[in-house]
Amino acid sequence: MVELVAGLIDVFADVPLSGNPLAVVQDADDLTDDQMRRIAREFNQAETTFLMRSTRADWKLRSFTASGAEVFGAGHNALGAWLWLGENGDLGSLTAARTFQQEIGRDVLPIELESVGGRIHGRMRQMPLSLSDPLDDVAPLADALGLDPRDILPDPPARPADTGATHLMVRVLNADSVDRARPTADKLLAVLEETPAEGCYIYALDADAPDTAYARFFNPSVGLWEDAATGTAAGPLAAYLAATGNLTNAELVIEQGTKMGRRSILRIRLAPVPELSGAGVVVVKGMIRL
Predict the structure, then answer these.
(1) Nearest to 199 by CA among 241, 171, 165
(2) What is the DSSP string of 206-271?
(3) What burial class does residue 234 get, using C-beta atoms within 10 Å of its C-beta: 0-12 exposed, 13-18 middle, 19+ buried?
(4) pTM of the model
(5) Could you report the per-residue pLDDT of 160-174, keeping only the tens digit for each?
């Protein structure tokens, strides 16, 4: 029998049972892909991240959704895993900020961790922004989201953006439009399949609160219906808004997950590539036996 340390951490959370939960499994080097997919199904979270040795970085991370799809990019799946290691004391002293390297798919990316007020905070750099062609016709997208085409604003246009994972950025009229969205899975999949995008990030900006956004994320491509906090979408959103003149400074604060009852706050700083920051709360720690 194999025993591995595993548990749950609420990412982008200040208190337990908020933010976006992530399952973490340590010392997963000897697990097969099939075992990792089955463990992810067992945890039944948006994502489960497996920590492994790396010849290119301090740690190698692999993440799977509950449906068994492997996902990449430096989002809550990566930040949560490092916060888990830091909170459990596996990274040594973090009283001063320290930078580590993480292998995620083909990329090696830095993450900075520091203990502030007794809690571990992480800042994680993503890849430079890459944009694909905007959607020519938003009517099918509006129909897929259960919205009126007039809910989708043209500035900036609905467009796939990528800083490690490609998602469709869709600006809508206001927070009410975000909350009224009722996507139809097969229709949204049909729209996404015509683009390089994996998921759909709908968001609203508030003229009275510049440099903030209110968002929801849908990713039927990997069996993830709605996600409470999506770092791999927050990063490209900030970079896209800056590139189109819709961000007044180099920082963006995004509220996500509220409609799900899992309010999360994601903070992005452009330096000049997106840097995602946040903290988390370990809520479960134990052993998984195979």
Answers:
(1) 165
(2) -TTSTTEEEEEEEEGGGTEEEES--HHHHHHHHHHHHHTT--SSSEEEEEESGGGT--EEEEEEES
(3) buried
(4) 0.90
(5) 999 999 999 999 999
